[in-house]
Write a structure and sequence with these properties.
CATH superfamily of the largest domain: Gcn5-related N-acetyltransferase (GNAT)
Largest sheet: 11 strands, mixed
Distance between the termini: 23 Å
Strand order of the largest sheet: 1-2-3-4-11-5-10-9-8-7-6
Number of strands: 11
Helix content: 25-40%
Shape: elongated
Number of domains: 2
Strand content: 25-35%
Structural class: alpha+beta
CATH architecture of the largest domain: 3-Layer(aba) Sandwich
């Protein structure tokens, strides 16, 4: 069944059984509520009437799955949404994927696994005094640096500027003589977690420890607010950096690209 405002307390209690895995689902309730022009939450209950599974559809982009038990109706609805709508991917943590098993293999084209890590501070001492909080005035510099590392995004300047102004993202950076040379951003913030994204350094200033200092400062500041940083990585080099800072592997997170025909993609 599709959930709405009357289910909010129940839904949040269930999602908070694993607040880090569900940071997208929890954060988007705070941002968009149950506006079904943007997102929809579907709930699945066991025989005792307890909520045990949630299917979350976000815009035209993703379907997130989270469950502690998997019923036939859960799988059936996942297939129905796949047939009715043209979103390109499914996302879920390892425990939910293990419960699903092979039952969605008919629509999954490929799976990409990344390590999800959560910040637990250690005794590492790093001088982060020169790391600064960035503002909307830094939006162009942030986008320029992110574009160098991740590619150009259409409309990124206005998007980043608006999110910084509205507090939907928090960015920290390292500047040298006024030039932004390293940046990291926190987004999808909930009462428990914040997702760390966009960690990058100008290619002319790499391997000087700037990104490490920026992520450390931001992670510590978030922790003071009761939020643990959550980030994703796939390569061993990133693992060694983040684990040195205190990011401990938490789960394997899957992004599953779906099989789509050209006609289906136009729905």
């Amino acid at each position: 069944m599709q959930l709405d405002e009357q289910h909010q307390a129940e839904l949040l209690r269930f999602l908070h059984t694993d607040p880090h895995i569900n940071l997208f689902l929890i954060g988007d309730i705070d941002l968009f509520g149950f506006d079904d022009t943007i997102q929809r939450y579907y709930g699945h209950y066991n025989a005792d009437g307890n909520l045990v599974g949630v299917i979350f559809r976000f815009r035209e982009e993703t379907m997130h799955l989270y469950a502690t038990q998997i019923s036939d109706t859960f799988i059936t609805q996942a297939y129905e949404l796949y047939e009715q709508e043209a979103f390109p991917r499914i996302m879920a943590g390892s425990k939910t994927m293990a419960l699903i098993g092979s039952r969605l293999d008919a629509i999954i084209g490929s799976k990409a696994a990344s390590t999800m890590a959560v910040y637990t501070p250690n005794n590492l001492e790093i001088d982060t005094s020169e790391v600064s909080v960035l503002t909307s005035a830094d939006a162009d510099a942030i986008v320029a640096l992110e574009s160098q590392s991740f590619g150009v995004r259409v409309g990124a300047h206005d998007h980043v500027r608006t999110e910084l102004h509205q507090g939907l993202r928090i960015s920290y950076g390292w500047k040298i003589e006024g030039k932004l040379v390293s940046v990291a951003t926190a987004t999808a913030m909930t009462s428990d977690s914040a997702m760390i994204i966009g960690v990058c350094t100008d290619r002319d200033y790499m391997k000087q420890g700037f990104a490490t200092k920026v992520v450390k400062r931001m992670s510590d500041e978030l922790l003071k607010q009761g939020k643990q940083g959550v980030l994703f990585y796939t390569n061993p080099a990133a693992a060694s950096i983040y684990e040195r800072l205190g990011y401990e592997p938490y789960d394997t997170y899957y992004m599953c690209e779906l099989k789509r025909s050209a006609s289906h993609a136009k729905k």
